[in-house]
Design brief:
Layout (H helix, E strand, L loop, with lengths): L4 E5 L12 H14 L3 E8 L3 E5 L2 E7 L6 H23 L4 E5 L4 H11 L3 E5 L3 H4 L8 H16 L2 E4 L2 H11 L6 E3 L15 H7 L8 E5 L8 H12 L5 E5 L5 H10 L6 E5 L3 H10 L2 E4 L8 H8 L4 E4 L11 E4 L3 H13 L6 H12 L2 H23 L4
Parallel strand pairs: 1-2, 1-5, 2-4, 5-6, 6-7, 7-8, 9-10, 9-12, 10-11, 12-13, 13-14
Antiparallel strand pairs: 3-4
Helix pairs in contact: 1-14, 2-3, 3-5, 7-10, 8-9, 8-12, 11-13
């Protein structure tokens, strides 16, 4: 493919405001695209207006007022991105393709498409339906976000989803046709999680016996992610064996889950750490014995890749499409008894099964950024070809 000029639009990145899983995806994908020799411009929001080049990627950071609701904030962000895009286009030249991530930049992408006839690709990382626990929200904000997801799917030339589960979800909700849909997985930089540490030292620092098996949960404490299912499953596991459950993350279900643990009489066996910096999370990936992903809805499940990078087995709900059952982990139904069975199965086999190592082998083969960038470039190539045909630029 010839070298092209790419514009990526996102509300977060590793080098600006960082919120969740989109930030590493966008920044690391941008790095990989730039490494292939393409000119990559990333438009994102930050606390001040600033342009800089990071890993060969041109970052255009737009200062955004973060007051008000999320929809109001994204309206202001899109206005700022539009103005900055005009300036960059004037100085750098015409773009070949634009690529937005989730609903946040849809308004600016549609505005640019209308004014300059520039095609855009949209990656869905999740849906409003999924974030609400597989339920449609009946309040204004949820309806507006859902509308922008539909609009992005309708106006985009091509749509990327990160998993089969998410692909089927947006087909069902937004009626996006198969011919526009691509499935390209998320990824991580192999080796960024694995560390040489003494697991006993990490456990001891938090008042946990160094020989006690630890089950790790890390993510938003929200209905979608299912921490309450894990707490109830923990009570069933603890009737059979000693273990410690470490839950990292903040969210509207944290206090509920803490109260639930005390009500079930397992408060001392559940450590709720709240928000933790990256280094602490990485320490726990390496110190734990297994990782649990009990999500009710999981568009991808980046935590699974992080667990595999640390060579840890995974027990995941059947909302997670990445795990190969009894090979790289155990799949459970989205209910506590099934999750408890999976946890007991893995805990009984610690030291014998090689699920974590097999997951690591799969990670290196399928979820590296070079492979993901190459697949993304295929989408761009089709987008550009389709645009050229429609514009009459093909003889």
């Amino acid at each position: 493919m010839k070298k092209i000029r790419i514009g990526l639009f996102t509300w977060e990145s590793l080098y600006s405001i960082r919120v969740g899983g989109i930030s590493p995806h966008v920044s690391e994908l941008s790095d990989a695209l730039a490494a292939e020799g393409h000119e990559v411009h990333l438009f994102t929001r930050d606390n001040e207006n600033k342009d800089e080049v990071i890993n060969g990627v041109y970052y255009h950071k737009i200062a955004c007022d973060q007051s008000g609701g999320i929809v109001e904030q994204m309206n202001r962000m899109c206005d700022g991105m539009y103005c900055r895009f005009l300036e960059v286009r004037e100085s750098a030249g015409e773009f070949d393709v634009l690529h937005g991530h989730d609903w946040h930049p849809v308004n600016v992408l549609c505005r640019i498409k209308t004014q300059f006839r520039l095609p855009f690709v949209l990656t869905f990382h999740s849906t409003e339906w999924g974030r609400n626990g597989n339920r449609h929200g009946d309040w204004w904000e949820a309806k507006e976000i859902s509308h922008r997801e539909w609009l992005g799917g309708y106006e985009s030339s091509e749509v990327i989803t990160t998993s089969t589960v998410l692909k089927e979800e947006i087909k069902y909700i937004y009626k996006i046709p198969d011919y526009k849909l691509w499935e390209i997985p998320n990824g991580i930089t192999v080796g960024k999680i694995k560390r040489k540490i003494d697991p006993g030292d990490v456990k001891r620092h938090y008042g946990i016996h160094p020989c006690l098996p630890v089950v790790l949960f890390t993510g938003r404490m929200s209905y979608q992610k299912g921490p309450d299912l894990l707490v109830e499953a923990a009570a069933k596991v603890l009737k059979k064996r000693d273990a410690q459950f470490v839950l990292i993350g903040e969210g509207d279900m944290r206090s509920q889950c803490e109260n639930q643990a005390h009500r079930l009489g397992i408060g001392n066996s559940c450590s709720f750490l709240g928000y933790a910096p990256d280094n602490t999370v990485i320490d726990w990936f390496n110190a734990c014995d297994l990782v649990c992903v009990p999500s009710r809805n999981e568009p991808f499940g980046i935590v699974v890749l992080e667990a595999w990078d640390a060579r840890k087995p995974v027990v995941a709900s059947d909302a997670v499409a990445l795990v190969e059952n009894f090979r790289t982990g155990v799949i459970a139904h989205k209910e506590p008894s099934s999750i408890a069975w999976g946890l007991n199965y893995v805990l009984e086999g610690l030291g014998r099964n090689r699920m974590g190592e097999k997951g690591y082998d799969l990670l290196k083969k399928r979820y590296n950024w070079k492979t993901i960038a190459e697949k993304t470039l295929e989408v761009y190539e089709k987008t550009v070809e389709k645009h050229d045909v429609m514009a009459g630029n093909v003889s």
